[in-house]
Amino acid sequence: MDDDKSANQTEENATGMESAQDTIARIFGGSTHSLGAEMAQMSSRYEQLQKIEVPKPSVTRCIAVANQKGGVGKTSTTVNLSAALAQAGARVLVIDMDPQGNASTALGIPHGSGEQSVYDVLEGRASLHDVMVPCPDFDKLSVVPSSIDLSGAELEVADLSNRTELLRDALGQMLHSTSEHFDYVLVDCPPSLGLLVINAMCAVTEVLVPIQAEYYALEGLGQLINTIELVQEHYNPILLVSTMVVTMFDRRTLLSREVYEEVKKHYPNIVLDTTIPRTVKISEAPSFGQSVIAYDPKGLGAVAYLEAALEIAQRSPSVLAAISRKRRES
Ligand SMILES: Nc1ncnc2c1ncn2[C@@H]1O[C@H](COP(=O)(O)OP(=O)(O)OP(=O)(O)O)[C@@H](O)[C@H]1O
Ligand SMILES: [Mg+2]
Asked: Are the beta carbons of 192 and 220 closer than 8 angstroms?
């Protein structure tokens, strides 16, 4: 993007015309008109984000994006955060553990019945490496697609003694054996607390909880935290709820601001300062098989997810230190 900027400047020098960024700043900079001020601010936030280098974690961060509540923004967060991290230079793997396959769709990956998917991995027929495919929009982003067949997996593996460890074993094998290093692995979970989610929570070290800015936002969070505690107690003692992010935030409403304050009061060190705004582009992007980072790169939604990615990346040292402490104590 720096290239874009210098290309703009070169163009400006050659033609005597100013860049789009300068035009917006000239028209709206210091504007008291709210839309103008917002456009100027957005343009400058976007430009600043292009200059920042996102720090890479010292070891792979494996994060399950989970909340048993439906429609709170798990998939949008998984997809757009992954795309933002990949665009900023991190190597990222998305594992779609939801039979609905929304994350696969949103990243432009086919996932019809019969396509190789994470289902084959859980059933032991393939490795993660066998089924992973590159995302068409980002060189550094790979995807392990889901499949509708995955909906039967919970029953099919229910009698296996290692039924909670199927994804953990596959991920461990891939991270240790492959010559390719991933900085982040994000697992998109279905809206339930069943075996697929338990598999995800056993395979990772962190949980990211998206919270929709709505009246019942915190309802059900207790149940999610209880499940996470059960997983910590029985299967994965180092699992850490490292991140919460408020989604579909509408800064014009008191309710959105109150939900944010409430979440911040309960989880001050976990909730991101960045909130994800409710925007049409975020909801439109999946129908084009794209993340909002590719679909509308300079829009409000993309800028928010880029800022969230930066915040998550900057927190890596403290999160990894907390996980190491848990590992020593367990
Ligand atoms: N910030 C946003 N602005 C506008 N629409 C959004 C935003 N985030 C998500 N949506 C829309 O809300 C709906 C639910 O989002 P999403 O699929 O990400 O939630 P989910 O928690 O993964 O849902 P499920 O529980 O079904 O897996 C989708 O139609 C999505 O496009
Ligand atoms: Mg989803």
From this structure: no
Q: Whole-prediction pTM value?
A: 0.88
Query: What angle is formed at CA 285 by the lines to CA 280 and CA 288, rounded to 5 degrees?
Result: 135
**Is the CB of residue 283 below 6 angstroms from any atom belonging to ligand 1?**
yes
Strand partners, 96: 188
Tell me which residue of 250, 271, 253 sits closest to 262, measured CA to CA. Answer: 271
Q: Does 224 contact ligand 1 (Cβ within 6 A)?
A: no
User: Which residue's C-alpha comes closest to atom 10 of ligand 1?
Assistant: 283
Higher pLDDT, 271 or 217: 271
Element (H, E) at 266: helix 254-266
In the CATH hierarchy, which top-level class contains the domain 56-329? alpha beta
| Backbone dihedral region for residue 8 (phi beyond 0: left; psi -120 to 50: alpha; all else: beta) | alpha
DSSP string, 176-208: HH-SS--SEEEEEPPSS-SHHHHHHHHH-SEEE
Mean pLDDT calculated for residue range 54-78:
95
CB 142 within 8 A of CB 95: no
Looking at the chain, the domain(s) classified CATH 3.40.50.300 span 56-329
